[in-house]
Design a protein that fits this description.
three-stranded antiparallel β-sheet, alpha+beta
């Protein structure tokens, strides 16, 4: 009985720490054209679907941004953009968005 209880507790803890707050594994893929650039930046305080929506929606409003995906498991945002848009501008935008995310 103790062995079964220990296995159940261990399984429960494993699922808790590997599930990233219960979010399903990210399945979206970046679509990168021949002339596109890609920028990947950490967003360590992203922790919920609200954070994801805020980051992605606001990045997509930036001139030259074609796609933005915030992966809540890796806590990284990937941005596909036209290289005429500077990566420095996008870095600054991500930094400003990180400050307004609901998860701290």
């Amino acid at each position: 009985m103790r062995v079964i209880l220990a296995i159940l507790i261990l399984s429960s803890l494993t699922l808790t720490f590997t599930s990233c707050k219960g979010f399903p594994e990210e399945e979206r893929m970046l679509v990168v054209g021949d002339t596109d650039a890609v920028l990947v930046l950490p967003v360590s305080n992203a922790g919920c679907k609200n954070c994801q929506q805020i980051m992605e929606d606001n990045l997509l409003k930036e001139k030259g941004v074609k796609q933005a995906i915030l992966n809540l498991h890796t806590k990284k945002v990937s941005v596909v953009y036209n290289p005429t848009t500077t990566s420095e501008m996008l870095k600054n935008k991500v930094k400003s968005l990180k400050a307004i995310l609901p998860c701290k």
